[in-house]
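Quick one:
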Amino acid sequence: MKTQSYIQKLSRHFNPSSRLWLVFAFVAAFGLMCQPASAQDCPQCATYAGTDNPLSTGEWLLTKQVNEVNVLFVATRKGKPVSGLSRNDISVRDDHKPPTTILGFRPEASLPLRVGVAIDTSNSVTSRFRFEQAAASAFFRQAVNRDGDLGFVMGFENYPTIAQDFAGDANLLAQGVDRLKIGGGTALYDAVYAACQKLLHRSEEDTVARVLVVVSDGQNNAGTVSLERAVDAAQEAEVTIYAISTNYRTGNTTDLDIGHGNSNLRKLADQTGGRVLFPESPKDVAKAFAKVESELRSRYVVSYKPADFTPDGRYRAIKIEARSTGEKLEIRARKGYYARAVSWLSSDPPEEVRTSSLR
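Output:
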């Protein structure tokens, strides 16, 4: 071997003790060179190699994101949530294949809640804004009511604005809603993107339920983010979007505007496992918030390792089916995700978000 003859030549210039040191150095280097090769021949090594060495938080999150998928879903019968499902009542398909392993299944009621409420504060909502504020405040008092639950308040017009950062105190959150002010255009997709970044960037020790409630007419006439990128951001961050349409029929709206706005809200909700609610008047917004709150505690979360997973950026569809007493149930869950090695949402520059200075 060339390596062996090279060592023999070098050894002539060293005393015996130095020769022993040289051999030891060569063996150590050879061992290090062999490690990557053996890892390439062992697909399981990527999963188990970190067991003996503690990982930093960032490395752990990356490993979890690549190898584990969490899906929150609601199962309904004739529009009403079904409780009491077990692991044996559901089946999962990821990229049309059953998962390699189901890691966990449990009701969402046991998960800490991370909920943001994003309210349209553009000029077009002036006449109905106080009803939306009152309903959002009541929602926080009902939804953020357990140890570990956190919420935040965002208003949006030309830019998203944080009126109250993450807090577990419903009164603080209600005060944040009260601080929202009217004015500007409607950067709906920028607000969704920024809210998903905020929900994803919060460090969590365990699985949490990430939810965004959007109160808007669905129009988008400001900002730089597209509808498709907003949906991708929600799927990437495992955020479920509930939308409350403010397209009440008044003399200032047209069927075309209402249809386009509601279609945008449906896409945001349907692709992320949520739903759209359509209050008939501003006074009915509170009822819509109440429906969202009641559904949040009726969902389930399933965690699994997808089969044949390759972080190639390809879209992988998710399909969940469930049966209760032999009857097939209706399922609402996010439609899929892009198989990325690292979250683009984490590495993207943060969306421009202002913090309210009103106190």
